[in-house]
Amino acid sequence: MDTLIVYAHPYEESFCHAVLEAHARRLEREGLSYEIADLYADGFNPALSREELAVYNQGGVLDPQVKRYQQQVLSARRLILICPIWWNDIPAMLRGWFDKVMLIGSTWTTNENGNLIGKLDNIERVDVYTTSASPTSHTRDELGNAIEGALIDGTLWQLGIAGRIQQGKPGLIEAGCAAWHNLGSVDSISDDERAAWLCEIEFPQE
After folding, report:
1. How many CA atoms lie within 13 A of 85 on its CB side?
2. Whole-model pTM above 0.85?
């Protein structure tokens, strides 16, 4: 599989859903294979249970849905994450996907010092697409910069699928093979501006 899209938004009329559809159209036009992990539509439970925690340190999987997500991650060449920014970070649904899917043995291991070593070298690129009510600069510079700091420069880097962060232009933070694309002020910009962003996703550099 070329691309795995992990989508985390509960509302089909959201702008995030339009972003998902734009990506799907692009991949189909380019003839690339892809799968969509629609976490809300799948009824995914992001909370680790007592039973799951009991086997967590052994990389155990009790939920068949989690096993399917793992297989998707391990077979993908590219990863696209699509979600809104809620309270300055990714939604709990997507964070729970990382908690449950990224397990020791399959996606990471540890070295002699106990440091986490990522194993997802099959993934060549990650693109994180978010929307925020705040301007991108405000989200990045004044609200903790969770996407850059915790997700890209932390979680993805630890998993071995993103390099250390480097400053990019507003709304696009690049880190080796990872990038953050955010449409800020999504509730207050014009329809034309939203449409232009979707066009950039569907027809990049065309």
Report:
1. 29
2. yes
